């Protein structure tokens, strides 16, 4: 049951997208709309997606967020969320990210998958996700909440496309039966110093559980995960702040490494 009017949804989508595109921070929207509900929050996110697609941007994937205990604890929340990835979020491996286009970016080490069959909820399971996994891919996400000081509640962050800003994939691609996503280790380094470590199990016990949850959450809106979808399963460790000049490298067990530099 949505609470906000269509006009308010459109206004808030424009407000948050402007903050993203012009790189300025805003106060969290629940301060002004304390009664907004989950459906409103996703309606705003879908309206931002519609605006980008109307301008010719393709939606090239989906992501889950707040799927690890480290992330939930860092952000003070307890339920995962999902969001979309637009074509211009993608940065090549080894590439540069311009700090001027972002507000206060942080980096996250993630495991991504690409599906080869549609996944429908409710009731989607880890086994179904594994059977529908074409490839497991290493990914680094750059999140950049549009909210001041990265402070938000869940509805505000859902509306803000779960802080999505940039992402990088690289390394090696493996089939689902060639890697154990649960024990797969990751090591994040900034300027050669290890800043975070973890394993796939940090993400809801198994990264595939994150994809199953995505299918089940999408079902609430009458949607599913189409075959061929690229999905980032969520940060394994807490997100790490970066500044201009930082080189970020994440090494993945069996999957090679991904790197980016902030300028
Ligand atoms: C929300 C986005 C979280 C993840 O991987 O957990 C996310 C945030 O923490 O700003 O992308
Ligand atoms: Mg993430």
TrEMBL record:
Pfam families: FAA_hydrolase (PF01557). GO terms for cellular component: cytoplasm. The keyword rRNA-binding does not apply. Residues 95-261 form the Fumarylacetoacetase-like C-terminal domain. Keywords: Lyase. It comes from the Bacteria. GO terms for molecular function: 2-oxopent-4-enoate hydratase activity. NCBIfam families: catechol_dmpH. This is 2-oxo-3-hexenedioate decarboxylase. It comes from Thiothrix eikelboomii. The lineage of its organism: Bacteria, Pseudomonadati, Pseudomonadota, Gammaproteobacteria, Thiotrichales.
């Amino acid at each position: 049951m949505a609470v906000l009017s269509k006009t308010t949804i459109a206004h808030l989508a424009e407000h948050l997208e402007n903050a993203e595109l012009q790189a300025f921070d805003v106060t969290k929207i629940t301060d002004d709309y304390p009664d907004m509900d989950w459906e409103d929050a996703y309606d705003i996110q879908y309206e931002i997606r519609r605006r980008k697609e109307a301008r010719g941007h393709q939606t090239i994937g989906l992501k889950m967020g707040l799927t690890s205990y480290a992330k939930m604890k860092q952000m003070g929340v307890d339920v995962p969320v999902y969001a979309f990835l637009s074509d211009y979020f993608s940065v090549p491996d080894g590439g540069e990210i311009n700090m001027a286009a972002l507000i206060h970016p942080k980096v996250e080490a993630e495991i991504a998958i690409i599906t080869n069959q549609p996944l429908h909820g409710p009731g989607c399971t880890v086994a179904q996700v594994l059977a529908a996994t074409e490839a497991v891919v290493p990914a680094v996400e750059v999140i950049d909440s549009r909210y001041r000081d990265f402070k938000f509640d869940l509805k505000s962050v859902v509306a803000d496309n779960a802080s999505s800003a940039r992402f990088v994939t690289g390394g090696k691609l493996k089939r689902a039966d060639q890697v154990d996503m649960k024990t797969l280790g990751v090591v994040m380094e900034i300027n050669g110093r290890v800043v975070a470590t973890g394993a796939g199990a940090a993400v809801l016990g198994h990264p595939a559980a994150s994809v199953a949850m995505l299918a089940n959450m999408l079902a609430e809106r009458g949607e599913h995960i189409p075959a061929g979808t690229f999905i980032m399963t969520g940060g394994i460790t807490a997100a790490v702040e970066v500044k201009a000049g930082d080189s970020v490298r994440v090494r993945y067990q069996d999957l090679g490494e991904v790197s980016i530099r902030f300028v």
